[in-house]
Amino acid sequence: MQTAVAYKSERLHKTIATRTKRVYDHISRIYPASTYFFHRKAHKIALEMSGLRNGMNVLEVATGSGEMFRRLVKHNPDGYTCGVDLSPNMAARTQAHARKQFPKSSLHCQAVDCRSLPYRDGSFDHIFCCYLYELLSTDDIYLTMEEMHRVLKPRGTLTSILIGQQAEFFNKAYLVAASVVPAFWGRQMDLSAPGILQETGFRVIKEHKVRQGFYPSRILTSVKD
Ligand SMILES: C[S@@+](CC[C@H](N)C(=O)[O-])C[C@H]1O[C@@H](n2cnc3c(N)ncnc32)[C@H](O)[C@@H]1O
Fold this sequence. Notes:
Elements (H helix, E strand, L loop, with lengths): L3 H10 L3 H10 L4 H20 L6 E5 L5 H9 L4 E6 L2 H14 L4 E6 L12 E7 L7 H14 E12 L4 H13 L1 H4 L7 H7 L2 E11 L2 E10 L1
This protein binds S-adenosylmethionine.
The site of S-adenosylmethionine has 21 residues, from helix 2, helix 3 and strand 2.
């Protein structure tokens, strides 16, 4: 049976996009600390698993403050690296830092809602999407995955990172945190996202679970079928 906290978290989630934007806009300056303590290890492994090669057209959906984006630009100096985030402050910060660190690289980051990507069909070799699905309603995850499928080239790959559900204690703490600040935490999608990937035309080819301290992540690399 669903607990009251779980029910509240799911119910609030459906009306959350505006608050998500506001919350992430407000914390854009301090967000790098969260990435450093919780996401850094998974980012590194996701890049290794992805098969990204220099010279590709690469898109990161939901860049946050740009830590993964800069890794991508660094590994793709002769290619083109694009990023989008709902929060204008996050997108601006990502672009400014990446341009400063890699002035010769071809890159662009903009404020965009992932449910409607402003790119032509078949534009990218590879897409990265880290810790986003938790913040979207189920309908919006379908829309987002369909959009990513559309803008990928045939046989292009999508690497996703999800907050893992492999640690019971963490799951309980997450439910409480999500009930307090749902716009920041969303809800865990580790168990349902792979099915949605498959339904929207992706085939999962690699999977890896990792923990940074107490924080679990699950990385999935999938191919556009
Ligand atoms: C948990 S953070 C993850 C940031 C980064 N990917 C990382 O790995 O650290 C989620 C990000 O998703 C962005 N986001 C939330 N909803 C979005 C949407 N509908 N479209 C684009 N970005 C969105 C938020 O603004 C936030 O920067």
